[in-house]
Write a structure and sequence with these properties.
heterodimer; A: about 180 residues; alpha+beta; Heat Shock Protein 90; six-stranded mixed β-sheet; B: about 130 residues; Glutaredoxin; five-stranded mixed β-sheet; disordered C terminus; binds adenosine-5'-diphosphate; binds FE2/S2 (inorganic) cluster; binds magnesium ion
Amino acid sequence: MEDLSLHILDIVENSIKANAKNIEIKILIDKKNDIIKVTIKDDGKGMTEDELKIAFDPFYTSGKNKKTGLGLSLLRDSALKAEGNVDIVSEINKGTEIQAYFKISHPDMIPLGDLSKTMLVMVAANRDKQFRLSHIYNGLEFNFDTAEFKAHKTDIVSYLKQIKDKLEEYKNFLEIIKGDLYGI
Amino acid sequence: MGKLKIEDLDKIAESARKKISLREGAGKVKITVHMGTCGIAAGARNIMATFLNEIEMHNAKDIIVVTSGCAGLCSKEPMATIEYENQAPVKYIELNEEKAKKIFDEHVLHGKIVPEYALSIGSERIQ
Ligand SMILES: Nc1ncnc2c1ncn2[C@@H]1O[C@H](COP(=O)(O)OP(=O)(O)O)[C@@H](O)[C@H]1O
Ligand code: FES
Ligand SMILES: [Mg+2]
């Protein structure tokens, strides 16, 4: 996967497949300690202990009509390359929490990518789910919560408009981060 | 049961109309973008973003957009499936933004299939 925003989209798809209703994404960037931590937490069906043991295996998937399950394994590859790793905590019928961390300054650290586009696509295509994002960068914080949007009371066009307005703020937030992180 | 009267026919027609508009309220066309790992790596996110832009531009309120997992056809990603009213679902393969726009303009808005981008036309199940 090319960047962090695509990994996030892919990991959130797992939560959706697991019938989660609430999905919480936390992105914590701590420049001083040189670490990016991404947490994706859902209230989906969870994994058994046996499943958990092989979750990173690229040849394990619970999906039908396919033989590989690459998502988690690719995420871990990206993390390991940047001196990080991925932890999974999961409980059957309770939910799953995936935490990936990376060393920011590592030359093999993948870029953040278009996080705002990832939010747009996953929120718009899953109107029956609640999404929460909290993105923290040093002292700054951006929060996004679909509970504000009343998805059931609006049509797709006005829903899109609400999401996009909110994501404009996120884009500005991301510009500041990128400028500060990479000096662009 | 007695003979059907004209008023009864009107009632039946009216209730059929109601059913149709109910269905329209729920969405006349369904767009499914395949968001398996391969799909995402091949650019599915931009395909979805393109459809969303088109929906906004055309103020197309009666469209449902969803994602689905892997379709088991890595090499044909990005893929999308269009279900237009009573037509059988059509799976489109190897998409890019241009193709997605054309599919939106012709198939999603007007029910005209774009055969050159389609994998197969049939009632196969989509995951
Ligand atoms: N959030 C989750 N909730 C429940 N099960 C999960 C979750 N994430 C991953 N899994 C399980 O781990 C398997 C492997 O995941 P992944 O590596 O992303 O491959 P894939 O999604 O293609 O199967 C999934 O098939 C699923 O059984
Ligand atoms: S993940 Fe490769 S075809 Fe679905
Ligand atoms: Mg996956």
